[in-house]
Amino acid sequence: MSIDKIREAIRDVPDFPKPGILFKDITPALQDPDRLREISDLFYERYKDLNIDKVACIDARGFIFGGLIATRLGAGLVTVRKAGKLPYDVIEESYELEYGSATLAIHVDAIKKGERVVILDDLLATGGTAAATIQLVETLGGDIVELGFLVELGFLEGRKRLGNSPVWAPIVY
Ligand code: AMP
Asked: How far is the CA of 60 from the centre of ligand 1 (A)?
């Protein structure tokens, strides 16, 4: 199956979650077993030979991708969560949204110094969420191999906020 087949199944939902946002809904792609398998294969092929220790996935749709591929990579799974959700000691990072701000958190023992980490989420938009995640992983001493997204909204230029960290996204709008 080609990447175009996955792309065809991503649905545009206008004005969600608020007016003016064109939401890229990946659920039709996930609902189809062949496409789901292809998505898993794409990420697996990309990272299988890179000695990944931890897959750090971002609340909430990033968890889907983390769960799909961490076991295939033989890597551990780390959840980067919205503030107030993780039960143990955390470090937090706040970032600006279009209106107001948000905070992400990670458990202090989630990543050990020098571990090789790939960060996963469903979609890169303005890059604020990913930039905060980079900060958290680097604070714990993780070595970021790459940030992987199924979809990138290239026109928002989120990559520019991610410094030197490599970014990969097979589907770009
Ligand atoms: P950002 O911090 O702007 O890069 O936003 C990234 C996060 O918001 C990701 O976790 C996405 O799931 C979600 N997101 C932002 N914009 C969209 C969009 N247009 N369609 C779907 N998800 C989006």
From this structure: 11
